[in-house]
Amino acid sequence: MPRTARLTATAAALAAISVLATACTGQSADTASDDPKADVTLNFWHGWSAPSETKAIEENIARFEQAHPNIKVNVTGNMTDDKINQALRAGGDKAPDVVSSFTTDSVGKFCNSKAFADLNPFLRKAGIDKAKVFPKTLLEYTQFNGNQCTLPLLNDAYGLVYNKTAFAAAGITEPPKTWSQFTEVAQKLTRTSGDSYEQLGLMPTFHGYETTPMRLAAQWSPTWFGADGKSNLAEDPAFAKMLAAQKDLVAKLGGYERLEKFRAGFGDEWSAEHPFHTGKVAMQIDGEWRPAMAKEAGVTFEIGTAPLPVPDDQAADYGKGYLSGTIMGIASGSKKQNAAWELVKYMTTDTEAVVAFANAIHNVPSTLAALESPNLQVSPEFKTFLDIARHPKSSTTPAQADGGTYQLTFTDFAYAVEKGDVADIPAGLAKTDQQIDTDIAKAK
Question: What is the tens place of the pLDDT at every residue in 96-115?
Fold first, then answer.
């Protein structure tokens, strides 16, 4: 189960990271003096907590320790960024040497604050060409201004999960590929019941689990920042077009208030009571984990998956999507960085390790070799997300010195748009640009 989806761009995580001092410094591959072949114990902190996930981590660590008998790893799970930052600031023997975080959007701050060591020297020393190991988009969200302070540890791709049985009942023979088709299909799948719904084609509001402005904006291939580094929301028409299209979909499915009232009765995103599982919604914008979770919940309908639709004028780019994922780094204050690198290198670049972990927790592999591995367990539903991850026009949100604060600012504006509180979207985007630029300037 991906905690990336839960924690990406959350205010709590970003606030926690903001306390890291920019003066935080440490060793690098060029200065680390510890002997990676000496007996040593590493502290590894991660955020997974579900039994199946922690079991997968333990199995991964056991394989690493078997290959590196001199290195023992103390594993601590269910760690939030807040707890990690407190420990990094305090230092000492109990602080983590290696950290895994779900907060992809915080990479800019991790790198900018020097909380994590730059891994470029370690990669060079190991003779690893990162461009030949990791997909381009994953490298983009794990570094900032040339500082590769993290590496990808599995990957999340976002697409469309749908109820094939409901599609057949509505006479729909294939998933929609363009936004106009998407709108039409969502309407066909919607059955009202009084002032509520018997079945909703899609919950389109931005409060609906993974239906975030960032996920949808990716389908318009936007440019978040200009060449001058300034926020580009008002200059790139992609943002206004996406917001207008989503606002139109909200209106055609019953309006914001009616939809939000229905959404209030939804179950937890990670439970068997998820509205897709129970048949309340027929389509869901979600990640690669949803089909497996739906099957585990005992759904009685057939599940289909597809890429998210694209704007009608970008039909040739169908297949792309939004990518994010878990990240892994070395604490800059660790005195065991050479040994810590052995663990990071194993978990992020060893094909067998990456594939085994991906199979265990139903995430997309994060290396090019693992994506093509014959040992990767690929169901028809999962293949869709592998294809999205491989698509040359799939994208992510860029790292910034303010972490993901700029995304929270844009999200707040998007909430106001769909609610009907914004009369002039272009003017509102220009004002949002100003706020983002101010926040980034303060963070540098």
Answer: 999 998 878 778 888 888 88
